[in-house]
Amino acid sequence: MKTAPQGLKPRSCCGTHGTLRQAQGRLKVVPFQNRKTHGMVKIVPFQNRETHGMANVMPFQNLLSQRAASAGLRRISRIAAAVLPAALGLLALLQSHLPLMAQSQAPERFVVVLDAGHGGDDPGGRLEDKSGKVTEEKSFALALSERLRSLLAARGIAVVTTRAADIAVSPDRRAEIANQAKAQACLSLHATMSGTGVHLYTSSLAPAAAGSASSPIPWKTAQAQWVAQSLSLAGALNNALVHAGIPVITGSTSLSAIDSMGCPAVAVELAPLNDAGGGQVNGPADPGYQAHLAEALAAALVEWRAEARKP
Question: Which domains does the chain have, with CATH numbers?
Answer without folding.
Answer: 29-60 (no CATH), 111-308 (3.40.630.40)
